[in-house]
Amino acid sequence: xxxxxxxxxxxxxxxxxxxxxxxxxxxxxxxxxxxxxxxxxxxxxxxxxxxxxxxxxxxxxxxxxxxxxxxxxxxxxxxxxxxxxxxxxxxxxxxxxxxxxxxxxxxxxxxxxxxxxxxxxxxxxxxxxxxxxxxxxxxxxxxxxxxxxxxxxxxxxxxxxxxxxxxxxxxxxxxxxxxxxxxxxxxxxxxxxxxxxxxxxxxxxxxxxxxxxxxxxxxxxxxxxxxxxxxxxxxxxxxxxxxxxxxxxxxxxxxxxxxxxxxxxxxxxxxxxxxxxxxxxxxxxxxxxxxxxxxxxxxxxxxxxxxxxxxxxxxxxxxxxxxxxxxxxxxxxxxxxxxxxxxxxxxxxxxxxxxxxxxxxxxxxxxxxxxxxxxxxx
Amino acid sequence: xxxxxxxxxxxxxxxxxxxxxxxxxxxxxxxxxxxxxxxxxxxxxxxxxxxxxxxxxxxxxxxxxxxxxxxxxxxxxxxxxxxxxxxxxxxxxxxxxxxxxxxxxxxxxxxxxxxxxxxxxxxxxxxxxxxxxxxxxxxxxxxxxxxxxxxxxxxxxxxxxxxxxxxxxxxxxxxxxxxxxxxxxxxxxxxxxxxxxxxxxxxxxxxxxxxxxxxxxxxxxxxxxxxxxxxxxxxxxxxxxxxxxxxxxxxxxxxxxxxxxxxxxxxxxxxxxxxxxxxxxxxxxxxxxxxxxxxxxxxxxxxxxxxxxxxxxxxxxxxxxxxxxxxxxxxxxxxxxxxxxxxxxxxxxxxxxxxxxxxxxxxxxxxxxxxxxxxxxx
Lengths: 378, 378
Prior knowledge:
Number of strands of chain A: 12
Order of helices and strands of chain A: EHEHEHEHHEHHHEHHEEHHHHEHEEEH
Number of helices of chain A: 16
Strand content of chain A: 15-25%
Largest interface: A-B, 126 and 126 residues
Distance between the termini of chain A: 47 Å
Low-confidence stretches of chain A: none
Oligomer: homodimer
Largest sheet of chain A: 6 strands, parallel
Structural class of chain A: alpha/beta
C-alpha cells in the first residue's frame, strides 16, 4: 500500500507568493487537500517568472498545479469579509506575505482562534516573527548568505550561492511537516496551533555540520569546489569523450578495487605514496594524473560501468540537459492554459499520478465568493 | 498554542546510518516519538565524524539527540529475532542501509505487512528501489552531481558542491513528511504504507526551476557565483571595514530609494545608464563602482542600517563564525557523555526546549531485548 490522497476533505487557504509558501501549498494539494491560493488582481508575481508554457510560466506551473486560484483585494472590506467567512470553517491558513501584512488585515492568529478554534495557522517569515528580525526583508539568496551557506559553497577564491532555491524549498517542506504535525495534534486535542517558521532558522539548522565544526573541532572546512579537504581520490575526472565522472574512495579496500579492477595497476595499493588515505591526499596530484591517464582512454559511460563493477561510488557531473534526459528521472505532467509541461515528479511515490491543472488567475473567485458569504455573521 | 510532542506513544525502529535517515529520526524524536536507533557493535560510523564533544562527535550529537541506541548483530539469529519481535508491535520502520540489505534480512515490506498490518515502512535509497538504480551507491555529494545541482552552483569556471548536506537533509525531511502522511492515512484506513524514497528523486524535484528553464525557456541560467544573470545591482559589495554586504534591487522604486537614501545621489535614478534594469545590468560595472565608493566609507553595520532604513533587501555575507555569533540564532543544547554542546535549534518552535540526551552506543540494548522477546511467537 502506498500513500493516497489522505488529506482529502481538508481545506487550506494560502496567502502565498513566490516559492516558499507555494511549494508547501503544492505538497498539501498533492496529498489531497483543497488548496485555495489567494492572489491579488495582478496575480502572484511568480506568474511572470518566465513565459515558457505558452506565454505563461512553467516555473509557476511546477509550484501551483492542483490548486484553486481566487483573486481578492484584501484592502476591500467586501473581499476581506469573504476571506474572514472562509477562515471560520477551513482547516489551515498558510502565508508568506510581507512582514506584518497578515496582522494588519486583522488575520493574526489570536483573532482567528476566536472564530475557528481548530484552525492551524502557519506564517513563514524571513527571520522570525518578533523584534528587529520581523522587519527584515528576505529573498532566498539573501538568507543563504546571511546564514553562512555561501561561505561554505563555491571555490576557495569565490563564495557562491546555491543554484536552486534551497532556502525557499527547505522552508516550504518544513512548513508542510509543521502543518502535518499540527493536524495530528488537532486529532488528539481538537484544537489548532499557530506555527511561526523563519527561513533563517531552517538554514541555521541545516548549517549545523559546519557550525559544530567551527565551534568544537577547530574550524569549519574551507570551500573546496568539487574536491574534499582530506579524502583522496575524491572529485571530478575528465574522460576521453569530454564527460566528467566524480568518484569517492573512502577506504583502502575501495582503493585496492580501484587500482586493480579499474586502473589495472594493483601495485598502486601497495605503493607508499598511496597506501593510506593521508598519503593519497598528500600525493593527490600524482594520483589524479594516473586516474586521468586511464579515464582519458574511455568514454564516460565506460568509466562509470567500470567503477560500478568495482563497487566504487561514482556519479556523473551532469548538466541540466543531462538531468533532463536522465534514465532515472521520473516525470509529472501539468496542464497550464492550452499547454502541457513535463517536470520532475514529487519524490514521494503514490498511487495516482494524474496530470494536474494549473489554475488560471482567479478561476475560482466566483465560486469562492458564493460559497463563503453566508458563514459571516455578526 | 504551539506544537507539542504529538507523536508521544509512537515507536520507531530505525536501521539508520550517516545523515539522511538519522535526520528523519531526529525529527520524529523531536515530535515525541520513541526512536530506537539500531546500530552494529561498532556503532553508526557517524559516531566517528569528529571528536569535538569530549572525544565523541558533535555532528553525531546534532543528528541523534533524543533517541535510544540498541546494538544488534543482524547476522545473529537471536538478535534478529528480537528485532522481528519488535517489528510486530512498533509503528514505523525507517532505514537507509546499503542497497538490498533490509530485504536480505527478511525485513522487506511484504514480509512485515503479514506480521504487522499497521506498520509504516520508509526505505531511503540513493536512486530508487528497483532496476539498475537500486544497485548504485550514493553519497550526498555524488547525488548532488548526478542530479545537476553542481552544474548550477559555483562560478562560471568552476562547478561546486553545496557546502551543507543538501541531499541528505532534504531527503530526511521528505521522509519525515511521508511518515506523517502515512500516520494520517493509517488513522483513516487502519493500515500502514510502504514508502520508497530516493535521494535522486528529491534533488530532481528541487532542480525543477533550472530544469524547466532548460526545457521551456531557452536554457538554464549559467553559474554566476554571487551575482545574478539579469538583475542589477545584485550581489556582494565590500565595505570600509572589510565586511561584505549583499543587496538585491528588484524594481525602479527600490533603485530610487537606493540612489537617494543610501548613495545620496538621487539623480542616478534618472540617469539613462541606470534608469531601467536592463540598462543597470548593461552598466553594472559602473554602478558597482559607485556603490563600492559609498560603502567603502562606512562599516558593514552602518551600510546594513542604511539599506534597512531605505527598505532595500540586504544580507551580510556571513562566515560560519558570524553565524555562530548571530543575534537571530536560536540554540538547542544536547548532552553527550559528560559534555554539553550548543547547536542551532530545529526551526519549528514548540513548547518544550529541554536539553536532549545523545545515547551512548548500545545504552538501551538490554532493555530492548527484555522488552521484545515474548512477542515473537511461532
